[in-house]
Amino acid sequence: MKLTDAMSHLRSISDQTHKFWAYYQAVTAGVIGFAWASSKPPPELLIGLTVAYAIFAFLNCRLVVSSQEVALAVWRAIQKYKEQPSEPITPQFLPILDLNQPDDPTLIKGMHIGLSILTATAVLARIWLQPAC
Question: Quick one: average pLDDT of 59-84?
């Protein structure tokens, strides 16, 4: 694999991760929007919605974290390659190899779980709270 292939692969993984986050954001906004719509849904529906959302969030978290782990592995491989290149790297482009370091997958997992718990709590809170109209 060439350096350009590795960098292209890293970009592809990054784009994929952003899509997973976009799906998560869209579903999360839809779930909260539905739960807090002007007419209050029955509690059974809100509980079912929360369970379905929890399943979605769990599966999405797995996708995001695994994608992040792969991105980090590719980035680390690029960093090792930079130390002992098999082909010459123009000095002006060396800083580019340091860009776009993926975040720690553990941090991403924690953020995802925290946001998912907050969302589930917001949906369940609709059972007990009425919006001020």
Answer: 92
* Angstrom distance (rounded) from CA 81 to CA 75: 10
* pTM (predicted TM-score): 0.84
Q: Pseudo-torsion of CA 110, 23, 116, 30, nearest 10°?
A: 160
Three-point CA angle 106, 50, 110, nearest 5°: 10
The residue assigned the tokens 């952003």 is: 18
With a CB cutoff of 8 Å and minimum separation 6, the contacts of 59 are none
The pairs formed by 81-85 with CB atoms below 8 angstroms and a separation of 24 or more are 81/3, 81/6, 85/3
User: For residues 24 and 29, what is the distance between their CA atoms, to the nearest angstrom?
Assistant: 9
Ordered by where they begin, the domains of the chain are: 3-82+89-127 (1.10.132)
